[in-house]
């Protein structure tokens, strides 16, 4: 079952950091799955189907920037939110957000919540993904709600 706030895949080679992120996100209602490096992330991401992936930058086998690039290349994960979490710098254009280590748990949770909300609700007004066409959310005269290009879900609607 998906957590009330969404599903997050936490990827870090440091077990203590993985657990710290996991606990903070679970306390806020997220369902969390962890991976020890980028290679493991890519092995499980299609089964897990996360709304957001947190990635450490420096990891064995496959580092964070290369993992993020592979996630963006895959149509199934292209629009999954990516938060880079690192003590060092992150190359420009990698991920949707950056959190510096040591991080404030509240900042991490809020960043993940914001990115998960974009994917769950279908609000792409602040996203910069090329596949999002904010001006053409649906066919004119259609009773169907607009498709969510980020998750393959239908965007939430309210009212009659």
UniProtKB/TrEMBL annotation:
<dbReference type="InterPro" id="IPR050595">
    <property type="entry name" value="Bact_response_regulator"/>
</dbReference>
<feature type="domain" description="Response regulatory">
    <location>
        <begin position="7"/>
        <end position="116"/>
    </location>
</feature>
<dbReference type="InterPro" id="IPR001789">
    <property type="entry name" value="Sig_transdc_resp-reg_receiver"/>
</dbReference>
<dbReference type="Pfam" id="PF00072">
    <property type="entry name" value="Response_reg"/>
</dbReference>
<dbReference type="InterPro" id="IPR011006">
    <property type="entry name" value="CheY-like_superfamily"/>
</dbReference>
<feature type="modified residue" description="4-aspartylphosphate">
    <location>
        <position position="56"/>
    </location>
</feature>
<feature type="region of interest" description="Disordered">
    <location>
        <begin position="131"/>
        <end position="160"/>
    </location>
</feature>
<keyword id="KW-0597">Phosphoprotein</keyword>
<protein>
    <submittedName>
        <fullName>Response regulator</fullName>
    </submittedName>
</protein>
């Amino acid at each position: 079952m998906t957590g009330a706030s969404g599903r997050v895949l936490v990827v870090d080679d440091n077990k203590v950091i993985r657990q710290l992120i996991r606990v903070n996100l679970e306390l806020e209602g997220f369902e969390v799955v962890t991976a020890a490096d980028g290679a493991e992330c890519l092995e499980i991401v299609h089964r897990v189907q996360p709304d957001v992936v947190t990635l450490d930058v420096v990891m064995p086998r496959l580092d964070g920037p290369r993992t993020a690039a592979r996630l963006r290349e895959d149509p199934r994960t292209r629009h999954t939110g990516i938060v880079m979490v690192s003590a060092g710098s992150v190359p420009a254009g990698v991920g949707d957000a950056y959190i510096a280590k040591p991080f404030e748990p509240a900042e991490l949770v809020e960043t993940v919540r914001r990115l998960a909300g974009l994917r769950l609700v279908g609000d792409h007004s602040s996203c910069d993904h090329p596949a999002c066409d904010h001006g053409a959310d649906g066919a004119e005269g259609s009773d169907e709600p607009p498709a969510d290009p980020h998750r393959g879900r239908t965007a939430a609607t309210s009212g009659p």
